[in-house]
Amino acid sequence: MKIINYLLQKLSFTSLQKEEVVPYYVRRSLEGYPGRTPLAGLAAGCDAIARQLPVGSPALLLALRRVAQRAQQLLQGPASASATQQGLDLINLLAHLMLIIEFGVRTLLPAL
Using omega within 30 degrees of 0 as the cis cutoff, is the peptide bond preceding 58 cis? Predict the structure, then answer.
């Protein structure tokens, strides 16, 4: 999923344009997970999103929500070892993204 990283970093998207492309990317990626979309690609794309969008961005919060909903679907669906593992992988991804966001918030706060 280097495409989203390229789009957000290299092209001169305005903040508004980034806010518009991110929900579409996340929705399409999660529709394909775990079949078409590999976890590594999804994680790389979500990582780029978390690093490129400002803290508190509605698109960033929507992306987190969609990842959480997909994890919930996988964990509450028909019980299978692979679905459970895939749901847990998404929960780990969420934890990673929240750490990135937390560090972003800490850099914005004045030193105490």
Answer: no
Read off the pLDDT of each residue in 21-49 and give the average, rounded to a whole number: 88
Please tell me whether residue 55 adopts helix, strand or coil conformation. coil
Cα gap 66→93, rounded to integer Å: 12
Whether 32 shows a pLDDT value over 70: the answer reads: yes
Q: Which domain holds residue 44?
A: 2-108
Dihedral of alpha carbons 10, 15, 56, 1, sign:
negative
d(CA 9, CA 11): 6
pLDDT of residue 98: 86
